[in-house]
Amino acid sequence: MMGSLAVIWAIGRKDLLLEIRNKDVVVAVAGFALLVLVIFTFAIDLNQGNAELVGPGVLWAGIAFAGVTGLNRAFALEVEGSTLEALMLAPISRDLIYLGKALGNFLFIAVAQIIVIPVFAVLFNLVVFRWEMLAISLLTTIGFSAVGTLFAGMSVRVRAREVMLPLLFLPVVTPLLMAAVESTSHMVYGRSWSDMAQWLQLAVAFDVAFLVVSAFIFQHILED
Amino acid sequence: MPAVVSQATQLAVKADAVVKNFGETAVLRGLDLELPTGEVTVLLGSNGAGKSTFLRILAMLTQIDSGSVSMHGVDITENGPSVRALTGSVLHAPMLYADMTVRENLLFFAEMYRLQNVEDLIAGTIQRVGIEPRLDHRVRTLSHGFQKRVALARALMHDPQMLLLDEPESGLDSESVAQLDSIIADYKSAGRTVVMTTHIVEHALEIADRAVVLNNGTVGLNSTKPSSDKAEILAAYSSKANDQ
Predict the structure, then answer these.
(1) Residue that is last in its domain, among B127, B143, B159
(2) pLDDT band at A149 (very low <50, low <70, confident <90, very high)
(3) N or C: which end of chain B has fewer CB within 10 A?
(4) ABC transporter domain spans which residues (chain B) (predicted)?
């Protein structure tokens, strides 16, 4: 068990090290999401009522679309250098490779959100620095990483992968996006944990289901 | 790491009726091959004969469509991770993280192979392949030849029972080729197995114990005296190449 966790952490840490050196993924995700937020602040009359109404949707749509860009890049780097095959040569099960890559993607999207959410709070004049937001963000990022890593792995050898990944990813994460938007709405309206409980439960169920299923499927998509 | 090698098992590789297709293209068409432990085997054949595909099957990067392959008596399709620990592979691409240093790459792969005493292992391995001065250089800054040496270090680090080399001499200068020959000789003298492909046939026949010429995905010729059968092997190799 500890050995498996060490392998997962080593893959995630390696991705983080490469990202610190290249800044490919976080800059792309944060930049794209910030652009979406800024465009909407111009497009919508952001009085308090409108901000509470549309803000959560804009935030999570921006992060979801931007996340696709980052997910594509994270796997493309492994294929360009054939390093994915080097991982496959190692005496570790393929699900550990999946979980390690998912951890890396989780870290990238989380770091991007640390940049994006404060900017969102300022632009939309909403109070988001609350424990509820941390829980929503954590659960949504786990789900994005779980599904995104699987589909990025599936589409990485496809010629039109930039098109393929969003086509696969966005429909599948729709329930998770709904949960994120609805719970964020409850939060900005100042409602209690119990009001958003059903949406958080949906997010937890989504994360658990997709982590387990994706780890299983990933073993089969790597083979020639 | 589970030890699956039985010293009593004499066959390093046993392939029975192996079939591999890529879409409509049949690459291996019922290949049968037995390779004893402790031999250096060179796989020869024209482009598309199935050499690299067979090596990738042994490295467990490619799945077979039918037939069976075992290493040291263990079926590779049913014992994935533990069988992969038996092999060290250097394939066409160096398969290294270009923006990490040589040391960082080796440390990372040591973690993937769950090795102990990593610093000592790395020190010994880099000396063996002659890359000590480049240890803290990023892989991106190294020549192709040095990247190949780092790939070789990664393949040797866990002291595998079998070394799989796909055209290892490509991009190497004569000094590096001599060093590679020395590593192969050391491996053989330690009772380990080497399976390699090459297009530099005459040189390979001098260092190999066995030469296998693949033709259309099957074994066309299997010689256990490659240096004395050189003329026959070269003729078989040339005729296959001309058939293309």
Answers:
(1) B159
(2) very high
(3) C
(4) 13-241
- CA dist B220 and A140 (Å) reads 57
Structural domains of chain B, count: 2
Q: Looking at the structure, do residues B100 and B149 belong to the same domain, yes or no? A: yes
Q: Do B61 and A90 touch (CB under 8 A)?
A: no
Pairing of strands B66-71, B74-75: antiparallel
Residues B194 and B221 in one domain: yes
Tell me which chain B residues have a C-beta less than 8 angstroms from the C-beta of A85. 61, 91, 93, 95
A43, containing H or E segment: helix A25-43
CA distance A112 to A61: 14
Is the confidence at residue A224, as pLDDT, over 70? Answer: no
Distance CA A17, CA B162 (A): 32
For the stretch A63-88, pLDDT in tens is: 998 888 888 877 888 888 889 999 99
- The answer as to whether B3 is a domain residue is no
- In a shared domain, residues B238 and B169: yes
Distance of CA B216 to the CA centre of its chain: 21
Same domain, B53 and B23: yes
Asked whether the beta carbons of A126 and A48 are under 8 A apart, the reply is no
> For A91, which of B1, B62, B89 is closest by C-beta distance?
B1
* Segments making up each domain of chain A, as ranges: 2-221
- Read off the pLDDT of residues A19-64 as tens digits, 9 standing for 90 and up: 899 888 888 888 989 999 999 998 888 888 888 999 999 999 999 9
- A residues 8-27 lying closer than 8 A (beta carbon) to B: 10, 14, 17-18, 21-22
Do residues B43 and B150 both lie within one domain?
Answer: no
Q: Do B76 and B180 share a domain, yes or no?
A: yes
> Is B2 a member of any domain?
no
**B118/B227 same-domain check:** no
In terms of domains, do B165 and B237 share one? yes
Q: Which of A18, A82, A89 minimises the CB distance to B84?
A: A89
Structural domain harbouring B133: 93-159
AA identity, residue B222 = N
Chain A residues with CB under 8 Å of B148 CB are none
Structural domain contains residue B171: yes
- Is some CB atom of chain B closer than 8 A to the CB atom of A81? yes
CATH number at residue B18: 3.40.50.300
